[in-house]
Design goal:
It is built from 22 helices and no strands. It is mostly helical and 515 residues long. It folds into 2 domains: 191 residues, MFS general substrate transporter like domains (Growth Hormone, Chain: A, Up-down Bundle), CATH 1.20.1250; 192 residues, Growth Hormone, Chain: A (Up-down Bundle), CATH 1.20.1250.20. The protein is globular. 47% of the residues are buried. This is MOT14 protein. It is found in: Membrane. InterPro entries: MFS (IPR011701), MFS_dom (IPR020846), MFS_trans_sf (IPR036259), Proton-linked_MCT (IPR050327). It is a multi-pass membrane protein.
Length: 515
């Protein structure tokens, strides 16, 4: 096991460029406006992830309204959750071109539109498009910027900041479950979705709070990393080896491209200055040309960064540990989503509705999930604790709970297992931290986009698969067993790959010594 990026064996270069001159850190990094970013991300998690975790309420309404199979109806929730995460890589392209703020505001409008259109659904297939696709894409356009901005604004307390912001999922699941229950009872599910769409417009406000850091501020963040001098030297030497073996984003092509872009803008400015004596209409045309040129430069630079991260010499897929992380993500998320979607049905099967109405099992998961994220974040920020080891221990606990849940047939037993699921699933707050340790801050948006895309695929097929198994066996037991075993396969990949990665440099050094 390992505790840092140096141990992992990969560095994409930018974080190891430590300057020789001390630079005064930006007060907004690890403080100041950074806490407004945490607040914005917290509200985003309430409105998006919290609402999705409460879809079990609407799922029961859709079953009664449209009288379709559980497997088919579950696709509505799965599409919404899955597409929110699957579009991550493409949202990374939007962020590279437009920035987090613009992307989040557009996403907030699209998400609200999806909820409102779903209020007029005439069948399940209509919901696939209106809620699953439209609201799902909008959610993805807000969710990824919310995570990335916290990573940009924090360095020393990244795990704690991510933990606090992602507790919005737990709060949201608790609040939205109660809200949707009340709205569906008082106004019906159609009006409930219309009201929820109006509430979702607050995502635009959250996006407006995402004030971008300047490139200078980001450089300062890289310089003031909290590593010791010994670790810095190790990082520098190791990044040199990585450049030789895998390559990093080429500096020279970027400089050439920037020079070409500056030449284009310079020529436009030269024409504008030379044409000052011309008519007002000509000046207006030149200003439009300058704006279009600047926009073109921004788009080209954003696309170049996005393309190089996925397909260039420094592709993220050359990082073997990161690839193992992707494989884990493909199996992990469904194990967390399946209980939220199908627990209401399980409670009804076991005749536990009376106890569940007093304190719903999904609310137990949501409340304990809040404490799990904060506590695991605090533990991971301790200097003597490895974030990676905390991440793995939480995963082992969660997969054990998933395999144990079908054995519980009493409310107390289910409540205990649900509490453990809620606490151990707090490792979600560590995922951006682990991802940043693997690839660096510069590639966080694209890398985390890939991870949540894999999570989205897991969330997309998990609940319908569980519903399909139920339609065949009339039990949910096998759904949890299969999901748990697949989850265990993903954890094994995480355990094996770092060991292989550590072994290879040692073998290489032994061969060089013999030569």
């Amino acid at each position: 096991m390992y505790a840092s990026r140096e141990d992992i064996g990969y560095d994409f270069g930018e974080d190891s460029k430590v300057g020789s001159k001390p630079i005064k850190p930006n007060p907004n990094i690890d403080g100041g406006w950074a806490w407004m970013i945490v607040l914005s991300s917290f509200l985003v998690h309430i409105l998006i992830m919290g609402s999705q975790m409460a879809l079990g309420i609407l799922n029961m309404e859709w079953l009664e309204e449209f009288n379709q199979s559980r497997g088919l109806t579950a696709w509505v929730s799965s599409l919404s959750m899955g597409i929110t995460l699957i579009v991550g890589p493409f949202i990374g392209l939007f962020i590279s071109m437009c920035g987090c703020r613009t992307t989040a505001i557009i996403g907030g409008i699209l998400n609200a539109l999806g909820w409102i259109l779903s209020a007029y659904a005439s069948n399940v297939h209509y919901l696939f498009l209106s809620f699953g696709v439209t609201a799902g894409i909008g959610s993805g356009m807000v969710y990824l910027p919310a995570v990335v901005m916290v990573g940009q604004y924090f360095q020393k307390r990244r795990a704690l900041a991510q933990g606090l912001s992602t507790t919005g999922t737990g709060f949201g699941a608790f609040l939205m479950t109660a809200l949707l229950k009340y709205l569906c009872t008082e106004f019906g599910w159609r009006n409930a979705m219309f009201i929820q769409g109006a509430i979702s417009l607050n995502l635009c406000v959250c996006g407006a709070l995402m004030r971008p850091l300047s490139p200078k501020d980001l450089c300062e963040k890289y310089v003031v990393r909290s590593d010791s001098e010994e670790n810095r030297a190790k990082a520098l030497s190791h990044s040199t080896e990585t450049i030789k073996s895998n390559g990093v984003l080429s500096e020279e092509p970027e400089k050439k491209e920037e020079a070409a872009n500056e030449e284009v803008l310079g020529s436009v400015q030269h024409i504008e200055i030379g044409g000052k004596s011309g008519s007002g209409r000509s000046m207006y045309g030149l200003r439009i040309l300058k704006t279009v040129s600047q926009l073109t430069v921004t788009v080209r630079k954003g696309f170049a960064l996005w393309y190089s991260s996925y397909f260039g010499a420094a592709s993220l897929f050359t990082n073997r540990v990161f690839v193992a992380f992707i494989i884990w993500a493909l199996f992990a998320y469904s194990s967390f989503v399946i209980p939220f979607i199908h627990l209401p049905e399980i409670v009804k099967q076991y005749n536990l509705s009376r106890q569940d109405n007093v304190f719903p099992l999904t609310s137990i998961i949501a409340i304990v999930h809040i404490f799990g994220k904060v506590i695991l974040g605090i533990i991971s920020d301790l200097p003597c604790i490895s974030t990676w080891n905390v991440f793995l221990m939480a995963n082992f606990t969660l997969v054990t709970c998933i395999l144990t849940l079908p054995l519980m047939h009493t409310y107390v037993g289910l409540a205990v297992v649900c509490a453990l699921i809620g606490f151990s699933s707090g490792y979600f707050s560590l995922m951006p931290v682990v991802t940043e340790d693997l690839v660096g801050t510069k590639h966080l948006a694209n890398a985390y986009g890939i991870i949540i895309c894999a999570n989205g695929i897991s969330a997309l097929f998990g609940p319908p698969f569980a519903g399909w198994i139920y339609d065949i066996t009339q039990k949910y037991d096998f759904s949890f067993y299969i999901a748990g075993l697949l989850y265990m396969v993903g954890i094994i990949f995480l355990l094996i790959q770092p060991c292989i990665q550590k072994k290879q440099p040692r073998e290489k050094s032994t061969e060089e010594a013999q030569v």
